[in-house]
Write a structure and sequence with these properties.
Layout (H helix, E strand, L loop, with lengths): L1 H27 L14 H5 L4 E4 L2 E6 L5 E5 L7 E14 L2 E7 L7 H4 L3 E6 L7 E4 L2 E8 L2 E8 L3 E9 L5 E9 L2 E9 L5 E8 L6 E6 L15
């Protein structure tokens, strides 16, 4: 009987440990909310391409002597550390994270430079846990509270204004304005943390015919593009 109780106690301890690790992993994956007054950089720095930012006793900068790679150092220029191997600009700091636009087409070395990598990125202050939030070209960007506001650019739509948010659980929210012949709407995309299923909310600007779509995100080479009416 005592032996059975020992087995039960050991099993309970194992279950408690597993539950504890699960809870710890969940909290580690969460992104702390920023105060609504938080701004990632000053207007003057951002107007000059956001090549410098300072927060919590550290200076973050795009090093012109190393292909524009992201570096950090103390204000007295000591403890210099390299954080990325590719060129960055529009550097923002908020909470425990760095936000920046990365593009190795303008600088960088190694395999990462051979493969063209670009987009809006987030990482820890030491450069670890780097994650691409939007793999699109961005002209300029700024962190305000929990939102990143930026101008996205491509050869078809040219420059458009976007905002993206990452909540405590790591879910991604992307909002954009879509305007053209036959359409004018606000489009919001939600991608839950750890999921590959997104929800799209389409809100027309001139009527109340709201539309919600959902589906699985696929790589470009596995997706189909359907062209609508041409004018």
């Amino acid at each position: 009987m005592k032996k059975n109780w020992k087995i039960i106690v050991i099993c309970c301890c194992i279950l408690l440990l597993l539950a504890g690790f699960s809870v710890l992993k969940e909290f580690q994956g969460r992104i702390p909310s920023n105060d609504i007054t938080v701004t990632g950089n000053t207007g003057g720095n951002l107007n000059n391409h956001g090549l410098f930012a300072e927060a919590d006793g550290r200076v973050y900068f795009s090093n012109a002597y190393d292909g524009g790679c992201l570096y950090s150092m103390n204000p007295d220029e000591t403890d210099l550390k390299k954080l990325t191997s590719s060129s960055v600009n529009s550097i923002n700091v908020g909470g425990n994270y760095l936000y920046y636009y990365l593009d190795n087409a303008t600088g960088g070395k190694g395999l990462g430079y051979v493969i063209h990598t670009y987009g809006v990125y987030r990482s820890k202050p030491d450069g670890s846990n780097s994650k691409c939030l939007d793999r699109q070209a961005a002209v300029t960007m700024q962190l305000v509270g929990d939102y990143i506001y930026y101008q996205r650019y491509n050869n078809t739509d040219f420059t458009k204004f976007y905002k993206i948010k990452t909540d405590k659980k790591g879910s991604i929210y992307l909002t954009m304005s879509v305007m053209g012949v036959g359409i004018s709407a606000q489009v919001s995309i939600t991608l839950p943390y750890g999921s590959n299923n997104a929800t799209v909310d389409i809100r027309p600007n001139f009527n109340s015919n709201r539309l919600t779509l959902s589906g699985e995100i696929l790589p470009l080479d596995k997706s189909n593009i359907f062209k609508g009416r041409s004018f």
